[in-house]
Automatic annotation (TrEMBL), chain A:
Bridged cysteine pairs (disulfide): 73-78
The protein's Enzyme Commission number: 1.11.1.2, 1.8.1.9
Entries under SUPFAM superfamilies matching the protein: FAD/NAD(P)-binding domain, FAD/NAD-linked reductases, dimerisation (C-terminal) domain
Protein name per the record: Thioredoxin reductase 1, cytoplasmic
NCBIfam families in alphabetical order: TGR (TIGR01438)
Tree of life domain: Eukaryota
Cofactor(s) annotated in UniProt: FAD
Gene3D superfamilies attached to this UniProt entry: 3.30.390.30, FAD/NAD(P)-binding domain
GO cellular component, one term: mitochondrion
Gene Ontology molecular function: flavin adenine dinucleotide binding; glutathione-disulfide reductase (NADPH) activity; NADPH peroxidase activity; thioredoxin-disulfide reductase (NADPH) activity
Reactions the enzyme catalyzes: [thioredoxin]-dithiol + NADP(+) = [thioredoxin]-disulfide + NADPH + H(+); H2O2 + NADPH + H(+) = NADP(+) + 2 H2O
Domain called FAD/NAD(P)-binding: residue spans: 27-364
Positions contributing to FAD binding: 82, 146, 348
Automatic annotation (TrEMBL), chain B:
Gene encoding the protein: Txd17
Thioredoxin domain location: 8-121
Keywords recorded for this protein, A-Z: Cytoplasm, Disulfide bond, Redox-active center
Transmembrane parts of this sequence: none
Protein name (record): Thioredoxin domain-containing protein 17
CDD domains in UniProt: TRP14_like
Xref: SUPFAM superfamilies: Thioredoxin-like
Signal peptide: none
Gene3D superfamilies, per database record: Glutaredoxin
Length: 492, 122
């Protein structure tokens, strides 16, 4: 009986008719989710000598994949993606190098296992690094699944099923998202997602990528760059939410460089033809514009049709935190506070906010400074730069052309654009009319640059500086009067 | 069966010893050579060794703890020495779990909590 009371202090107190108000909580702050946002918030709170706990748990994928501390970005997102994108770029560079005088007689081949082992080893060092940092800064970390069981109480279940209860004054939900499945026969049994791809213990072979998100296009891009036969099945448009002019250019480039596209079809069934690593899968798809049915065989089917927030099974209903029932996203005010004052949320799960690592990190840090260091700065979600690492990289900051037209009116914006040919591409005779840059200016506001878009090598590196300039209120005139660096792509 | 310690000196001996224990968890502490009086040229190693030794009882069963003297100061400073090149060591003392990316470097080895974490957690 004594043991039971200890486990369930809330329940006992409710039975007695008292409102549960423990004198002191176990922790000042419990962060649910050890990803980009969660870890940044926890580390920041530790700086102010708060007692912090981080709960991180990865529910294995249908294929059994799992990973360590650090969240999506570190384990199955940005980091492995960029490394594999780099592997593909290096393949291209090897081809280009012959024109620059490098001589090697053997045909150049790619070994998936070598690349994956190196990538996973690096990720492992990051997982370890986070654990050292947390331990060093006295943040308690538990590899356990956290869910609310009371207004200030979390139940944490570890992989052995052992449950523990913890209480805290405040909570930050930073549980992130997981890939969505199609809900068709064979999807969970036979298909993989980005959660599985970066640690796949065998080369994926001939791959069908379902989806037209940046995840789909980036993965299709590097898989093709590594020499694999890749097809992308797209339901409607590419890169929804991004500037469509740029999205189409990205698609065109990928098509011209060996990626097959099947447009306006959706898979309705996935069957296994042959077991193996990889095996052979048969995909049946239906047209979205008619009754046409097609079939295809692939070694691997990669689903990249979207990601869903991990907010449905963490007990939010028990503590009254409102979520958008349709999307699972959590609406918050401009201080990342949910409708329950002592519960906050950051990162990909937020409604109406950008799903980017640096955004989650910034939001987490600033939130904690407001909570414990008397700061007032709120996270600025406007003009956040981003980059899509497709074979031809795309960097953007600010409005897309469509959104600018919608908001300001076509007559009030001016678009300046240019194709450019990177000097490094001239000698190996690579495309001379694919790289492209455009800026969107607000005529009514001194031709202020409200949108920046660049398609070309190192787009991320190029865009970062312009994002700072845009934050300072860059106008077309200022841009024109800035002398270019030569010879670089950015001078365009 | 608890854990056992092996003491080695130099890279080839380290590699031979590690390979002979393939299949068991291997932890290794790399320190600078000691002089005739048993003092290392590496002051951080002098600080770290007792901290590490105090946590050895936390090693998982069947583990092997390899105490490895890397060489004299001149050898260590050479950027091409085998420990730097092959094991990617960046400093001494280094305490690592062999075959994994898990390691503690220099002042990290002074912290009993971190040493314990390296020995006991996955």
């Amino acid at each position: 009986q004594a043991h039971k009371e200890e486990d369930n202090p809330q329940k006992t107190m409710e039975v007695n008719g008292l409102t549960p108000v423990p004198d002191s909580y176990d922790y000042d702050l419990i962060v649910i989710g050890g990803g980009s946002g969660g870890l940044a918030a926890a580390k920041e709170a530790a700086k102010y000598e708060k007692k912090v706990m981080v709960l991180d748990f990865v529910t294995p994928t249908p294929q059994g994949s799992s990973w360590g501390l650090g969240g999506t970005c570190v384990n199955v997102g940005c980091i492995p993606k960029k490394l594999m994108h780099q592997a593909a770029l290096l393949g291209q560079a090897l081809q280009d190098s012959r024109k620059f005088g490098w001589q090697f007689t053997e045909e150049v081949k790619h070994n998936w296992m070598t690349m994956t082992e190196s990538v996973q080893n690096y990720i492992g060092s990051l997982n370890w690094g986070y654990r050292v940092t947390l331990r060093d800064t006295k943040v308690t970390y538990e590899n356990a699944y956290g869910e609310f069981v009371g207004p200030h109480t979390i139940k944490a279940t570890n992989k052995k099923g052992i449950e523990k209860l913890y209480t805290a004054e405040r909570f930050i939900i930073a549980t992130g998202e997981r890939p969505r499945y199609l809900g068709i026969p064979g999807d969970r049994e036979y298909c993989i997602s980005s959660d599985d791809l970066f640690s796949l213990p065998y080369c994926p072979g001939k791959t069908l990528v379902v989806g037209a998100s940046y995840v789909a296009l980036e993965c299709a891009g590097f898989l093709a760059g590594l020499g694999l036969d890749v097809t992308v099945m797209v339901r409607s448009i590419l890169l929804r939410g991004f500037d469509q002019d740029m999205a189409n250019k990205i698609g065109e480039y990928m098509k011209e460089h060996g990626v097959n596209f099947i447009r306006e079809f959706v898979p309705i069934k996935v069957e296994q033809v042959e077991e193996g690593t990889p095996g052979i899968l048969k995909v049946t798809a239906k047209s979205t514009t008619g009754d046409q049915i097609i079939e295809g065989e692939y070694n691997t089917v990669l689903l990249a049709i979207g990601r869903d927030p991990c907010t449905r099974k963490i007990g939010l209903d028990k503590v009254g935190v409102t979520i958008n029932e349709k999307t699972g996203k959590i609406p918050v005010n401009d201080e990342e506070q949910t409708n329950v004052p002592h519960i906050y949320a950051i990162g990909d799960i937020l409604q109406g906010k950008l799903e980017l690592t640096p955004v989650a990190i910034q939001a987490g840090k600033l939130l904690v400074r407001r909570l414990y260091a008397g700061a007032t700065t709120k996270c600025d979600y406007v003009n956040v730069p981003t980059t899509v690492f497709t074979p031809l990289e795309y960097g953007a900051c600010g409005y897309s052309e469509e959104t600018a037209v919608e908001k300001f009116g076509e007559e009030n914006i001016e678009v300046y654009h240019s194709h450019f040919w990177p000097l490094e591409w001239t000698v190996p005779s690579r495309d001379n009319n694919k790289c492209y840059a455009k800026i969107i200016c607000n005529i009514q506001d001194n031709e202020r640059v409200i949108g920046f878009h660049v398609l070309g090598p190192n787009a991320g590196e190029v865009t970062q500086g312009f994002a700072a300039a845009i934050k300072c209120g860059l106008t077309k005139e200022q841009l024109d009067s800035t002398i270019g660096i030569h010879p670089v792509c950015a001078e365009v | 069966m608890g854990w056992e310690e092996m003491q080695v000196r130099g890279y080839p001996e380290f590699v031979r010893t590690a390979q002979s224990y393939h299949g068991r968890p291997i932890f290794a502490l790399f320190c600078g050579d000691k002089d005739a009086e048993g003092r290392s040229w590496c002051p951080d190693c002098v600080t770290a060794e007792p901290v590490v030794r105090k946590e050895l009882h936390n090693l998982p069963d069947e583990s092997v703890f390899i105490y490895c003297l890397v060489g004299d100061r001149a050898y260590w400073k050479d950027p091409n020495n085998e420990f730097r090149k092959n094991l990617k060591l960046t400093g001494v003392p280094t305490l690592l779990k062999y075959g994994t990316p898990q390691k503690l470097v220099e002042e990290e080895c002074f912290k009993a909590e971190l040493v314990r974490m390296l020995f006991t957690e996955d």
